[in-house]
Amino acid sequence: MKLSIVPLLVASILLGIVSLVVSADDIATLRNATAIDTQKEPEAIPKVNNDDVRRSRAYPMQPPLIPHKIDNYQVDLNANKCMSCHSRDRIEESQAPMVSVTHYMDRDGNFLAEISPRRYFCNQCHVVQHDAKELVSNQFVDMYQLMNQKQQESGNQPAESSD
Amino acid sequence: MKNTIKRIWHTLRRPSVHYSLGTLVIGGFVAGIIFWGGFNTALEVTNTEAFCTGCHEMRDNVFEELKTTIHYTNRSGVRATCPDCHVPHDWTDKIARKMQASKEVWGKIFGTINTREKFLAKRRELAEHEWARLKANDSLECRNCHNFEYMDYTAQSGRAAQQHSTNLASGEKTCIDCHKGIAHELPDMSGIEGW
């Protein structure tokens, strides 16, 4: 059997060209263009936003961002600190928003008495925000903006930003 | 046996032949100071974090967990040590707590709490003792450092100010009602009020 070396050579040359074109400086990383043999000066650790102001959601199904710090909040087999404020029967005292009803549903849509096991570990979906500059700028476009654009293009009145 | 006791009793009751009253009074006074001082010094030694974490149970379990919390390192550099939260300042309360703690030391000597597993199995019970104590004394140990009178709501986070200005201010709740697990990992919380 004779393996041709030509395709391999072509492939590696192509790869080389690609890596030249996409120069390391264009990609934001934590090391950010620091030479491989030098140690980067570490960035200051940003603070967690703890201003208690609820953020708008980018789309209806988005898990809302956590507007408070959660340092040392225990969520394990023994205790769920989040539910000590966010559960149905705790919100009167804590004045926190209740976890929505989806959190009490199993995957077949049955309503459970307790938080559903698939929603137990809150931080799978909900995260805090840090007071930091983003490494990569966000180009997310809200759907209302898209709808407005469409409507302006077709010469109609712009849609309300909310209903 | 009975005779020995009788003889000692007689000696104690007989007026002193060899020593003057003055010597006896001053001697007794000095001995008293030494005993009392020694007792309190011993008490002080047992009242340090080094003593508390001298045995494995405390060092490998609760102390390890404390290290990740705000009471071990924080921006102001003020530390809370074990006795700050667990030993009352008041003398009678202190002695009472020490006697209780001796039981936990006993537990170590006789090997009832000599592994992480055994500690975890006991944890709910031990935690409940602490909650009951802090509930009964209105979280006195917390208040030794955190004085409600001097809390500035405007400097607190929204959630903190909201709770402190209502449920805490009215006296309805005390620190430990809302701040369980502030220094260590929690045991199984099922059935505990507020969880």
From TrEMBL, chain B:
Transmembrane segments: 21-39
InterPro entries linked to this entry: Cytochrome_c-type_ET, Multihaem_cyt_sf, NapC/NirT/NrfH, NapC/NirT_cyt_c_N, NapC/NirT_cytc_sf, NO3Rdtase_cyt_c_NapC/NirT
Main subcellular location of this protein, as a coarse class: membrane
Post-translational modification: Binds 4 heme groups per subunit.
Keywords from the UniProt entry: Cell membrane, Electron transport, Heme, Iron, Membrane, Metal-binding, Transmembrane, Transmembrane helix, Transport
Protein location: Cell membrane
Family annotation (Pfam families): Cytochrom_NNT (PF03264)
Membrane topology (UniProt): Single-pass membrane protein
Residue stretches making up the NapC/NirT cytochrome c N-terminal domain: 15-189
Membership in a protein family: Belongs to the NapC/NirT/NrfH family.
Name of the protein described by the UniProt record: Cytochrome c-type protein
